[in-house]
Design goal:
By secondary structure, this protein is mainly alpha-helical. The chain has one domain (3-211). The chain has nine helices and no strands. The protein has helices at residues 3-31, 37-49, 53-71, 77-96, 103-126, 133-145, 149-167, 173-193, 203-211.
């Protein structure tokens, strides 16, 4: 596979993944059975301030990038696009998705959102343009503190979940399902959508060709 098709695939994966991530968030929020810890925080801030959910998602993402500075994390283009585009794509989802009345309709809606978020995560991270602001915070703290990655992630998510819940965010069975299932699901989608690096030219073959005498 040449470098141009590989790069084109990476760009497409990144953009599709970031957009799908926002739609997945909208699906889970519309289902109203609980959402991920970071979305509980954004919901709570939305309730307390009246600022649209998508705008708050952008502000939180950019604020996390500032925290990256002392952690010496380097953002990629995927990191920046994640911070800037997930919120607006979630707002698009809110415009087109209804809020189901029945619990039997809301549960499948949440499940669809969770599955789509796992796929979206595999797409945008697999594109190799950098992690999202929240994932980078986790890996940065892990590297700087030396604490196990699960301790860092649990500490971060419990903290934002608690703050979001106090502010009025929606904590429910969906929040528990997200915490238990997203890890194994992303564990499947990441390797599936990972874009391999383009193979480098075989320098040995090039040198052999260069050294082969040519007929005069």
């Amino acid at each position: 596979m040449s470098s141009r098709p590989v790069f084109a695939r990476r760009i497409v994966q990144l953009l599709v993944g970031v957009f799908a991530y926002g739609i997945a968030i909208a699906l889970m929020i519309r289902a109203s059975v609980g959402v991920s810890p970071w979305d509980v925080l954004s919901q709570g801030l939305n309730i307390q301030t009246g600022v649209p959910f998508g705008v708050i998602t952008i502000v939180v993402g950019l604020a996390l990038l500032l925290i990256w500075i002392p952690l010496r994390q380097k953002p990629g283009i995927g990191t920046v696009l994640n911070a800037l585009l997930v919120g607006p794509s979630a707002e698009v989802g809110f415009l087109i998705l209804p809020t189901p009345e029945s619990l039997w309709a809301r549960i499948p809606m949440f499940a669809l959102g969770l599955a789509l978020l796992a796929v979206a995560t595999g797409l945008y991270i697999g594109a190799r343009f950098g992690p999202g602001p929240r994932d980078g915070l986790m890996t940065g703290l892990h590297r700087r503190t030396g604490w196990p990655i699960w301790v860092v992630r649990t500490g971060i998510e419990v903290t934002v979940l608690t703050i979001g819940w106090i502010l009025g965010g929606n904590v429910g069975i969906g929040t528990v399902a997200f915490a238990l299932l997203i890890g194994p699901m992303v564990g499947r989608t990441l390797p599936f959508f990972h874009v391999p690096e383009a193979p480098k030219p075989d320098t040995g073959v090039i040198e052999l060709i260069a050294e082969t005498p040519r007929a005069s």
